Structures are given as structure tokens and as C-alpha cells.
């Protein structure tokens, strides 16, 4: 009887807590909506203003707010996407009220292609004759790459510039798995498909080392070339400064010409005032790029009916419809593409891909809908971001034209599958054994506690090989090449954008502007407006959707809480969860690319 009351009390308590949380959400939502309704207009942009660029701790998304947001953030600030940031910088270039740009960033969480696009926009801004000043307490390498475009780079006296070149470090788990008596059943196609190497080896294979060195060298060369051109430092001197880590202290960074001045932030403000012609006691008007975008760059063009749909496919390719913003769920994207296909006003599609891949099933479902869009007479052009590899390349390969940035990571045409066998672990570590009754030879097939037979091993490998062959044929058809020509450059190998153009995986080097121009030309459009997908939500809207639409709302809310607690470490947790939930054969980049 005591157990009955214990369970009854627990149930009532759980229900009460749920009701309290729902009431809280209801009031929060109403407060949020009321706040939006009574939201103060963005402060007007004053003459002699400076556009300020700061960067949040989360990665810069392709599309504004297309990432998981903190639902408990009262301020609910937008996280500007790359496209809107570039648009704001272009607008500021021609705006007489904006006299310069202030980059205030020690850390920029962005891939190399994203950083290059922003850097190009800043370079274009400078062509107007306006200034760019950067200040930071210290510069991580990616932040310095962006800041190096500035006319003046200032740094705190106790700061440093983390300028040392690029490296790639991979963790290998085979030793740990051996100690735990976990046997991994590993199946893959492509000798460069190294996603499974950490589970079956204790160091890089020669093939993996070769491809990593090749693409890191290409990315490093681009970084050195760009910084050299902006700072007017010979590349040889720049490489020597990186090799000797001369940026490690303020004085050595100054001597190496990595920075222009050792100073405090108030001195950076004085420098900008002087450039504008303000007195020392006059206030420096700094306007955030988010506020500037809302005030002057954001626009809705209804002047023409003809539209080009811009579909942002960023994140991991996953099966289903429910999940976090910033991932590519096949059911969700199939619905988006189907809606676009049935919209007579949409004349062409630009697919912006920034994805390391994921589920083969999800990739294939999305590719099918892309093909149907093409059959409906809508040209499809792909613009690649930081990464468009494995499944990310799969969904791109049938586009009418493919554009990549010079430092896009693409290719990785290969597939793999892994299954942990835990029977020995359970027996040796916990004393648990398993027995089973079968009604057929393969009735227990796939159970991690019962060893596969050699025939079952062969069946899985045959499936992996079959999917790889299908992947090859799809790419060959889309790129107008033979299966053997694609196989020669496939096998899971990763390529930088410049090399991808040489071998025919992409058509040309360029960004979103080139892709939009190509789409308009293919559709025969002189005038058009763009419409963007998917629709993005605020943090509170994401939370409400978890309760009202997500069948697995508990899991979604748990992820929100964990994300809030882990902060910058959340992506590592997310990757582990994705690996745990992965079903079926995967077409995924072997690495998690993080550039600091």
C-alpha cells in the first residue's frame, strides 16, 4: 500500500509540475507576443554612426535564427544569418550615415567559407573609402582572419593573436572499446571513407592522412594569401610568424605586423572618433549589425510576382520531421520542396547547402523531390557553404549548376554503417548472458547482444556496397560523367572547393550572388524577388512547438535545458546523440570541422 501512495504522489507531483510549466509557458508566450506587439521601434540610425560587428558564441547560421535558440532568453535577440549579415554590410557601404565598421570580436564561430564570404563583404565595404577598425582583448585565429581586412587592428596590452596555421586532431576510440570488450561491426565503401577509423584503428590511415593534409593545406594557403594581401605582409614572412607563433604576445604581434597598435578599447573609440571628425567628448554612435539590419537592410520586395526560392539546407541530414532547428529533417524538407514545386510564382530554386551529410534515406528522399522540381520546369542551382559533403553532396549532385567557395569542403562520396556488439561486454563486465529462440536463421539479426553470422556480415556489407554504387550512379548522372570517372574521385575522399572544380564535382567558384544570377538566367528572369525557406522561429516559439506539435516533447525540452547548461560544449553532446540515434546506412563527413 505504501508503494501505491508513493507512485500516486509521484504521478500527481509530475502532473502538477507539468501544469505549472505549461502555465509559465502560456504567460511567457503571451508576454512575448505582447512584447512584440508593443515592441519599441529600432532606434533611428544617426548621422556619423559606426556599424558594430559582434559575434555570438554559437555558430553563424546560413539563415537568420536557423539554429536552436535559448527559449528562456528574455531579450530574444535575433542571430543574424550569413546572408543577412552580408546584405547589411552592402547596405551600409552606400549609407551616408554609416562612416565605418567596428569589428569587436575575439572569437568567431564560423567555418572558413563563411568567414571568407564575410571578409569579402568587408573588403567591398572598404572600396567605398570608409574605414574598418578592429579591437579585441585577444584574437583567435578565425577572428584574426576576419579582422585582418581592417585598416587598423588594435589589441589589449596583455592579449595575443592565436595565429599558428591549421591542424586537424582526431580522437580514436579503439583502445577504449577493447578495454570494454566492445566489438564494433564496421561496414564501409571507399578507402578514404574514414568516418569509421576511430572505431577500428588507433591512428590515421595513410589515405586519411593524405586527404586531411591536402584540404588543410588548401585552406591554410587561402588564409595566408588573404591575410598577406590585406596586411601587405609577404607570405613568407607571414608563414614564418605563424611557425614561430609570433602572435603569442602583444609586443611580438606588433613587431610581426600582425596588429597595428597595442591599446585599450577606449583608445579604439578615440581612433574612430578622429576618423569621423568627432571631438574627444562627443559620443561615438555605435549601431549593432542586428539593429541596422532591422532598421535599414531588411526589406520585403513585392514589386514582382516572379520568385526564386532560396532553400537553406544546413545541419545534419536526419530522418523524420521533429527535431531542432538547424538540422535537415527529410519530411520537413520534402514538404517545403513540394510546396515550392506547386507554386507557379516560383520560377527557380537556389539550394544553399551547408551540411556534413547524415542519413542516406533522408538524402535520397530530398533528392527525389529536387528531381521532381526540375521535372516541373524549375531550374535548381546549388550554392555550397562551409561543408557540402557526403549526404550534403548527395542532395546537390543533380542541380543544373553547382557553385562552391574556394574553401568549401565537399565530396566525401561514400557510405558506412556501424553496429556495436555488446554480448562480451555484458558477460565479462556485468555477468549478464543472453539466449534466444529463433523461428528463422536471421530472426535475431541486428540485435547487439547476439553475434552476427558470417553470412549476416556479408549481407550488411553487400547493402553498403549497393548503396555506394547507387550513390556513384546518381552523381555520375547528375554530373554527366561515367560511373568509373566518379569512382576515381569518390571513395569517401574529401576535397576543397578549388580542387572540386578541377575534378568536376562543382561547376564554378562563387557564392550566393553567383547562384542567384545563374538561377535567374536559367529561368529567363530579368526581375525577381527571393523567398526563403525554412521559416525560422524565436526561442519561445521553438519551445511552444515542442509542447504542441512534437510527439517527443520531453526529449526536445530536455535538449533545450542541456543546451542551456552546456553552452559551447553542446555541439559535442549533440554529435554523440546523433550517432546514437543514427539508423540505417550513413553518408556523412568523417570529421567535425571546428575552426577557432
Query: What is the chains' assembly state?
Result: single chain
Which consecutive residue ranges, at least 5 long each, have pLDDT under 50?
A: 1-39
Strand content: 15-25%
Q: Main sheet?
A: 8 strands, mixed
What does this 3D model show about the protein?
It is a single chain. By secondary structure, the protein is α/β, with parallel strands linked by helices. Among the domains are: 49-164 and 245-297, 2-enoyl-CoA Hydratase, Chain A, domain 1 (Alpha-Beta Complex), CATH 3.90.226; 307-414 and 473-537, 2-enoyl-CoA Hydratase, Chain A, domain 1. 45% of the residues lie in helices and 16% in strands. The protein has 22 helices and 20 strands. It is globular, with a radius of gyration of 26 Å. Residues 1-39 have low confidence and may be disordered.
Task: Supply the key terms.
596 residues, 2-enoyl-CoA Hydratase, Chain A, domain 1, 6-stranded parallel beta sheet, alpha/beta, globular, 8-stranded mixed beta sheet
Please give the structural blueprint.
Elements: H1 2-37, E1 49-53, H2 82-94, E2 98-104, H3 112-126, E3 131-136, H4 141-147, E4 152-155, H5 174-179, E5 183-189, H6 197-200, H7 206-231, H8 235-243, H9 250-255, E6 261-262, H10 265-276, E7 285-288, H11 289-297, E8 307-314, E9 317-318, E10 328-329, H12 330-341, E11 346-355, E12 357-359, H13 360-375, E13 380-389, H14 391-394, E14 401-404, E15 409-411, E16 415-421, H15 423-430, H16 454-479, H17 483-489, E17 494-496, H18 497-502, E18 508-509, H19 512-523, E19 529-533, H20 539-548, H21 553-566, H22 570-581, E20 586-588
Parallel strand pairs: 1-2, 1-7, 2-3, 3-4, 4-6, 8-11, 8-19, 9-10, 11-13, 13-14, 13-15, 14-18
Antiparallel strand pairs: 5-16, 12-20, 15-17
